[in-house]
Description:
Blueprint: H1 3-8, E1 36-37, H2 40-46, H3 65-69, H4 96-101, H5 109-120, H6 134-143, H7 147-163, H8 171-183, H9 196-216, H10 222-231, H11 242-262, H12 284-303, H13 310-326, E2 335-337, E3 349-351, H14 355-373, H15 382-401, E4 407-412, H16 418-427, E5 432-438, H17 442-452, E6 458-460, H18 463-467, E7 474-477, H19 484-493, E8 497-501, H20 508-519, E9 526-529, H21 536-546, E10 553-563, H22 569-577, H23 580-595, E11 604-612, E12 627-634, E13 639-648, E14 655-660, E15 664-667, E16 678-680, E17 683-685, H24 692-713, H25 721-740, E18 744-746, E19 752-753
Parallel strand pairs: 4-5, 4-7, 5-6, 7-8, 8-9, 10-13
Antiparallel strand pairs: 1-3, 2-3, 10-14, 11-12, 11-18, 12-13, 14-15, 16-17, 18-19
Helix pairs in contact: 5-7, 6-7, 6-11, 7-8, 7-9, 9-10, 9-11, 10-11, 11-12, 12-13, 12-14, 13-14, 14-15, 16-24, 19-20, 20-25, 23-25
Amino acid sequence: MRRSHFLTQFTKVRFVDETPYVAEESYPFIPDPVFHSLDDVAVLRNGPRGGGGGMARSPACSLDMALQRGMPDPAERPLCSPPEGSRLLLHSLSSSSTAHCVAFPLRDPDEARLMKYYLEYMCNWFDLCDVSRQFALKVPLRAMSSPTLRNAIFALSSRHLSLRGQFDEYASTRYHQECLRQLSSVSHGSPDLLDDNLLAATILLRTLEELDVPLLGNDYESHLLGIQVFMNTHGPAAVASDLRKASYWVGLRQEVTMALSSQRPIKISLCHSFIDQSLTEASDDMWANRIIVHCADVVQFCFGDDNQRPADYRRLLKYDDDWLHSRPLSFIPVAFSAADPGMGEAFPRIMYLSHSVVISVMHSLLARALLLCHDPTLPKIGVTRQNVLQTRDDEFQSVQRMPPRKLQVGVAGLGRMGKRHALNFFQSVPRAELVAVSSPDADEREWASETFGPFGIRVYESYDAMLQHKGLDAVCVASATTVHATQAIKAIEAGKNVLCEKPLATTAKVSQTVVDAAATRPDLKVMCGFSRRFDEHYRDAYAKMSRGDIGRPSVFRSQTCDMLDPSGFFVAYAEFSGGIFVDCSIHDIDLALWFFNEDDDAKIKSVCAIGITAVEPDLCQYNDRDNAMGLVEFTDGRIVHLYSSRMMAAGQDDSTEIIGTRGKLSVNSLPAANLVRVYEAGGIRQEVPQNYWDRFKNAFAREAVEFTDCCLDDTEVPVKLTTAVAAVRIAAALQQSMITGEKIWFNLLGQQAIKAQL
């Protein structure tokens, strides 16, 4: 699809009300099930319903239908003054002047009906990205004392009801005119521009304006201009009210839609203190608002007055990619139904957890589509331009249609980590399908048969047999460490993509054989699973370090400490794990290489380590310890300090510090399973994760999602395989130093050497 063709889809914005027919006496009503078609062009062409509703269907009313059917319509019964007890002890109404300003209780039955309609239905159009529901809860309350806001509610409700033939078609105009009379006195520079009630009223009237477009034939954007004036006025208050912020987000969604349809710049200020474009942990509403602001930035880039600079284009592309990779798991579709061409369907039907997620997805798709159409790096003429345009068309089709093909995954090994990988691919990766598992252990196969058998997932005893499973695309290797390399290489030779649990092997030499095998099949994706790189907190710390918040990182201090297991598990495990540094500290070593921006160990100067068997003396038979410390020295003087343990009393205790020349970053310095604190007679306590999985389960899911995306989209894996070899080489050297008591030196090639030879 060429740029000009794409843009013609937005030249006419018309209101399309998807509300089911409402019988005269039956509102509030419940819309269709919350399935949202990702037909982005069609939805954008139709425009947001009433603007305030963003790009999603109106939510179902939360009130009980049976109760509402039993409640007579206010317009059917005469209204009178309520009993005095209804106002008893309302101190805010004690003065006659205050009581005179409050319009409730309403005396006009028609206005009571309009208010009821707003409370039960219309308000939901505006609160799709606001869990605090300002337009449902605060706007009606403020309307008690604000005639403009109250008349705006009446104007909007009466217009929507009149479109259904359920109310006087001229009533909306009367209420609208009354609002205009009250708003006409507001001028530029007036303190009334800081009145949140007037801003909220303007938001409602803008939605009314959109409803009137089919009737008038044109959209004069009068109230959109009013929103721009209100939102571009900054008051002396340091913090905007919740209602003002909610109004801003609704207004911005309206502005983005109209700016796109008119191919004009954004006229609402994108510089407010409450705008957060970071990628830190936040609510779904915040994630939605972040991508909406990004979409506004993209519209500004495409249709603004400034030249389209390649640097700005790359910045926007990077934010789009970072946002996509940082979204929380709540953005995973609940259900997916591929388009059925036989039914005339061109796009899939996808169900999400909330309306804010739907709005996020739509604005993300819109931003990506616009960036594809406005790429300043495209060649201007020649065959190269035609080739690039064809590639752009293919990319645009992928944005539109979201191919339903799923990665067919098999999991090898169903021990403590294998079970969790299998469950992840089964339920947490929307673009993957678990089709097979394998284990030589009978108990593990029995568990798999009970868990996955009812869903048609094959359970194999033989790994080699699983590799022959028809249609298998990828293998997750989660078996014993000693067979990681062997199974990974077999999968590569069989033409399968590979996600291998860390480490690749217990020695660098064997680990390198996996790298060599992967080099023979560059068409495959082979990745070692270092889960902490996918943890949102570590990613946030890395982003802050990368932008220079702490200066040059110089010292890296990290620990992996498991909860004490008195069963003897870690003793038996030590026979195959490679030792405490290869099994535990391997994660911290990988983090150090990542934060120090080193893909290999070529800059390692020396390592040394010590250890103790504090609770498990039997570990000595495998040259292992239950507590160990290590130091890694880089050739440029940077230092890595590592601590690992198998005897934590409270639970999993993994933390990291990155110390720079101008500051320090810490991750999980005070471990906590959640934000709950227990206050007891003996003191205050807070629970911590009980094992590694509890601490990093979201990171494991993100790891599986991104690996799947790489396989299906043919993009680079986020963790280079050579880094996995470097981590093993350093870990094995630390293990050797701990056992021998000697400091180990490396030459410039990353090979162990005697200090005198350096």
